[in-house]
Specification:
The structure holds 2 protein chains of 2 kinds. Chain A is an all-alpha fold. Chain A is built from 13 helices and no strands. Chain B has 4 helices and no strands. The chains are: A mainly alpha, B mainly alpha.
C-alpha cells in the first residue's frame, strides 16, 4: 500500500494516535510539556493539575509524577495489547463468530422454507387454487381460439402475449447493459483505440489455432444444431419449444462455430450492425403486433389473419411470426453476450 | 419412475452442495453444468419438454461458456496451466 507522504503530519494521523493512545509528541506538544515542567518546578501548576493546585505541596508532586508515569506505562501496555488483539485472538474469534452466524442464518432459512413448503396445498390436488376456470378455459378452448396445438405456445404468445413482450424487452435491456459495461468502442476518429487493439491481441489467446478435433466436430455438429433450433422455432405452435428455446439453441450453435473457426468467419455474416438491425426489427414488429389493439380500441389483428387448419405450419395466426421474432432476438443476444465477454465487441 | 426421480433429486442435492464446497472454480463450473443436465432430465420426467430444451441450451450451454470466459478473463485458470507445464520443463 502506498502511504501519502503528508500522512504522518495529517490531522487524521493525529486522531489515530489519539485513538491508539500513542504519545508520540508533535512539536507543539513538546513545547507544551516543557512549559508544564518549568511551571511545575516554579510551583505554579497549570493545565490538568490546576484543580489540585492549592491542596498539594511540591514534594508530593514528585511522588505523583512517578505514579503517573507508572500508570502511563500500564496504559501503554494495555493499548499495545488492545492494538494487537485483532491480529492474534480477534481473528480466530471473528472466524468462529462468522461461522456460527452463517450456520444459524442458513439453518433458520432452511427451516422457514420447509415450514412454508409444508403449508402449500398438495401437488396435483383437485381443490388447488390453480385449478380454476382459467386453466379449464385454456385447455378446453385453447386450440379453438388460438389455433395452436401446443397449448403452452397458445398461452404465452396469444392469451398472454403482452407478458412475453415484456420478457423479450427484459432480455433486450440485459443485452444493452452488457453492451454498456463491456463494449470497447472505436476512437472518435474512427480508428481503433489502443485499448481495443490490446483486447484484439489478447483475444488470440482464446482462439484454438487450427484445433483439428474441435474444427471437425464443429463442422459436423453446427449445422444440425442450428437446423434443430430453426425447427423448434418454426414448430413452436405445434410441438414443445418456441422462440426462446430455439433461439438459445441457435445462439449456442453460433458460439460453438465461433470457438472452432474464429471471428473472421463469423464476422462475414454476423456483424454488430446486423445484430442491431435484427434486434430492432424483431422487437418493433413484436411491439407493433401486440400493442396494435391499444390503438384500435381492443380490436385484435387476429380477425384479419386466418387461423388455418390446426396442425399445419402456417396456422394459428400471429404465433408463428412472433416466435420467429423472439427466436431471432434471443439468438442474437446469446451470441452478443459471448462476444462482449470475450473481447468487448462483435 | 418414482425411484428414478428420487435418484435424480439426490444427485441434484449432491451437485448443489459440491458446487459451493469445491475450492477449484473450474471444477465447480463443470459440476454446475451437470446440475443443469440433471435438472433437464427432471423437467422431461415432469412432462415439460420445452423447459428441458431451454435448460439444456441455456443452463448447460451458454451460461457455463460465459463462466469459462469470465474465469479466463480474470486469470483464474492460469495457475493450473502453470502447474501442468512445470513437470515437463
Amino acid at each position: 500500500m502506498k502511504i501519502n507522504p503528508k500522512y504522518e503530519t495529517s490531522k487524521w494521523r493525529k486522531f489515530e494516535r489519539w485513538v491508539d493512545g500513542d504519545s508520540i509528541p508533535t512539536e507543539a506538544e513538546i513545547e507544551e510539556k516543557l512549559e508544564n515542567t518549568t511551571n511545575l518546578k516554579n510551583g505554579s501548576k497549570k493545565g490538568n493539575n490546576k484543580k489540585k493546585e492549592d491542596l498539594q505541596e511540591v514534594e508530593e508532586t514528585d511522588l505523583e509524577d512517578v505514579l503517573a508515569a507508572y500508570r502511563q506505562q500500564e496504559m501503554n501496555h494495555f493499548y499495545t495489547q488492545y492494538k494487537n488483539w485483532p491480529k492474534t485472538k480477534g481473528l480466530r474469534l471473528f472466524k468462529r463468530v462468522y461461522n456460527l452466524i452463517a450456520i444459524i442464518v442458513c439453518v433458520s432459512m432452511i427451516l422457514v422454507l420447509l415450514t412454508v413448503v409444508s403449508y402449500l396445498p398438495k401437488f396435483g390436488d383437485v381443490a388447488n387454487p390453480a385449478n380454476n376456470e382459467v386453466t379449464k378455459r385454456y385447455i378446453e378452448n385453447g386450440l379453438e381460439e388460438t389455433g395452436a396445438v401446443n397449448i403452452v405456445a397458445g398461452m404465452i404468445l396469444d392469451y398472454r402475449a403482452f407478458d412475453t413482450l415484456g420478457e423479450s424487452h427484459v432480455l433486450f435491456i440485459a443485452a444493452c447493459c452488457v453492451l454498456i459495461l463491456l463494449r470497447i468502442d472505436y476512437g472518435k476518429d474512427g480508428k481503433p483505440t489502443s485499448e481495443k487493439i490490446a483486447e484484439e491481441e489478447n483475444d488470440r489467446n482464446y482462439e484454438p489455432k487450427n484445433d483439428k478435433i474441435l474444427q471437425k466436430t464443429a463442422f459436423v455438429l453446427v449445422p444440425p444444431i442450428i437446423l434443430f433450433g430453426i425447427y423448434i422455432i418454426l414448430n413452436g405452435h405445434l410441438s414443445p419449444g418456441g422462440g426462446f428455446s430455439g433461439g438459445a439453441i441457435i445462439g449456442a450453435g453460433l458460439i460453438l462455430y465461433l470457438n472452432a473457426f474464429g471471428f473472421k468467419k463469423t464476422q462475414r455474416f454476423l456483424s454488430y450492425r446486423l445484430f442491431q438491425k435484427v434486434t430492432l426489427v424483431a422487437l418493433l414488429f413484436y411491439s407493433a403486433a401486440k400493442t396494435y389493439s391499444f390503438y384500435t380500441g381492443a380490436n385484435h389483428l387476429k380477425n384479419m389473419i386466418p387461423k388455418g387448419t390446426a396442425g399445419n405450419i402456417l396456422s394459428s395466426g400471429l404465433i408463428l411470426p412472433l416466435n420467429i421474432c423472439v427466436g431471432m432476438v434471443v439468438a442474437c443476444t446469446m451470441y452478443s453476450f459471448y462476444c462482449m465477454f470475450r473481447k468487448g465487441g462483435m | 419412475m418414482n425411484f428414478l426421480i428420487l435418484i435424480l433429486l439426490g444427485f441434484l442435492i449432491v451437485c448443489a452442495l459440491s458446487v459451493c464446497l469445491n475450492k477449484n472454480l473450474l471444477t465447480s463450473i463443470v459440476i454446475f453444468m451437470s446440475y443443469s443436465v440433471i435438472m433437464c432430465i427432471i423437467w422431461i420426467v415432469l412432462e415439460s419438454p420445452d423447459l428441458a430444451i431451454t435448460e439444456a441450451a441455456v443452463g448447460a450451454g451458454v451460461t457455463s461458456v460465459l463462466f469459462f470466459i469470465t474465469l479466463k478473463k480474470i486469470h483464474a485458470m492460469k495457475e493450473e496451466s502453470d502447474d501442468e507445464n512445470k513437470p515437463q520443463i
